[in-house]
Amino acid sequence: MHAYRSQTCADLNASHVGDKIRLSGWVHRVRDHGGVLFIDLRDHYGITQLICDPDSAAFADVEKVRAEWCIRIDGEVKARDASLINTKIPTGEIEVFIREIEVLGRVNGDLPLQVFGEQEYPEETRLRYRYLDLRREKMQRNMVLRSDVVTSIRKRMWDQSFKEFQTPIITASSPEGARDFLVPSRLHPGKFYALPQAPQQFKQLLMVSGFDKYFQIAPCFRDEDPRADRSPTDFYQLDLEMSFVEQQDVFDTIQPVLTGIFEEFGGGKAVDQDWPQISYKDAALWYGSDKPDLRNPIKMQVVSEHFAGSGFAIFAKLLEQEGTQIRAIPAPKGGSRKFCDRMNAFAQKEGLPGMGYIFWRDQGEGMEAAGPLAKNIGPERTEAIRQQLGLGVGDAAFFLGGKPKAFEAVAGRARNVIGEELGLTDMDRFAFAWIVDFPIYEKDEETGKIDFEHNPFSMPQGGMDALNGDPLDVLGYQYDLACNGYELVSGAIRNHRPEIMFKAFEIAGYGEDEVRKRFGGMVNAFQYGAPPHGGCAAGIDRIVMLLAEESNIREVILFPMNQRAEDLMMNAPNDPMPDQLMELGLRVIPQD
Q1: To 5 degrees, how large is the angle CA 172–CA 177–CA 182?
Q2: Which residue has the higher pLDDT, 446 or 465?
C-alpha cells in the first residue's frame, strides 16, 4: 500500500464497504459522542468521516488529535446506518473505522483562524495566515476555478491558431500610465531595469517580427493605489496581438473566447450574445461611466432645456455658465418620498449638496408631480420632463447639474444604487458592452496643457489628418470591454507609423528625441516595415472575480497584498541588508 493513501477523501462510497484503506489529510473537526470519536478528515478533494471507539488500538492516540493536525490513518470502510447517510457529500454513505493513526504534522499552539465553519476574520489575519485561509472550502473552490479558467482560455486561444510566447520580466522603464517598479542593476551601477507594466511594446515587436498571432497569460507589474477590483502590485492578463487587423477583427476574436468562458464557468447565469458598441461620449452621458453595468436598464438623459430660465434658481444659474448641463436619472418604481430622501442622502454622502428629485403619484382623478423641483419649475415643465423620460405614476427622476466631469461619476454610482434598490438590475446575467471612440487627448483645466487621456500607442482615427485639427476632437482606435460594471478588456489598433507617432507625441509635449529615448526599441523597429496590428488584454483576476461572485479581487488571488501593498505573510517590503545596498551602489535616504 502507498505510504500515505490508497484513496483520496472524496473517493470512497458504498462499493468500498469492507475494504482496508489508507487516507491522509487534515482534521477538519473532532466530535466526541459519549466516548465514540468522530473525525471529519479533509484533503483537497473532499471529506470522509472517520470513527474510533475504545475497541480500536489507536483510540488513545486518536483522542489527542486536534483541528488541522495533518494525519494518516489505516482503517476499514463501513456502511452508515440509513438514517445517518449524509447526501451533501460524495462519501456520505460510508465511514471509516480507524485501526491505526500516524500524526504527520501537529498544530503548535492555538489556531489563528478556524478552517471549519463560516466564521469571518479580519482581512489582515487572513492574509498573515494565508496558508490556513486557503484551506477553507470557498478559497479552495476559487483557486481551482481560476486554474480551470486559465486552462480553458489557453485551449480556446490555441483553437484560433494563436501561438503562446513569453516576453521579458526584466525590461526598460517606459511611461505607460502607471508607476514602474524599478530594479537596480548590479552590473551597471546607477542604472535601473523595470518590471513591465504590460507586455505592450514586446507584443507589438512580435508583430514587427512577423509572428501573426500571439498570446500569453502575462504577469503585469504596476505600482498603483489598491482598490477592491485592483491589485496594488501585480496581476495577470490574457494578452493578445494580431497583424493585419481592424478593430472589428479584434472584437470577433475575443468575443467567442470570453463568451465560452462565462458560459462554461458562469454557474448557469445568462450570458449576453449581443455586445453593443457604445461611444465613450455616450457611455459617460447615459451611464456616468466608461464601464457601465448594462444589467441595469436606466439611461440618463440631458434635460437642461426644461430648467433654463426656470423658477429653480440653482439650476437656472448653473446653465448660464459655459459647459454646464442638467441630467436626469429616471427611477421607475421609485416614486415615494422615502426613497427620494434616501437617494438625496446618498448624494450628500458622495460629497454633493444633494440631488433634486420629482416623483409622480396618483391623485384621484389624475397624476400629480411632487417634490421641491416640481413646485419650483411648474406643471408644464414638469410634464415635459416626464414625457421625455417616459415615466408615469409611481416613478421618480433625480437631477444633477454642473460641468459633466464634476458630477458624472456620482451620477453613475447613483444610477447603480437606484437600479439595485428598485430591483431593476438583473443579477442573473453577464452583460457586455464595447466602449469605443475614446479621445486620445485631454486638457488640464488648470494649466491648459494637452496630454494623453488614454493609451499613447493608439492609432488616431483619420491618421495624420486628424492630428492637424483640434487635439480634443481626435478619437483613437481604442476600446474597452465592460461587464457588469467592471472593465474586463482594454485594447487598441496600434499606431505603427513613426511619422504619426512623432506627431501624436509632439501634441502632448514630447519631442522626437524624447520619444526615441523612451520608446527607442519600438520606434526603431517601426522603421523596418511594421505591419498594421492591434490587440487587447483581458484581466484574468477580474474575470475570475465575476465568475466566483466575489466583490474583492483578493478573494481570487493566491497570495495577495493588503490595502497598503504589504505582504504580511512574507514580510514584504522589508529592509535590505547593508551589503546588498553596497553591492548595488545604493543608500536609503530616510523620509520625513
Answers
A1: 35
A2: 465
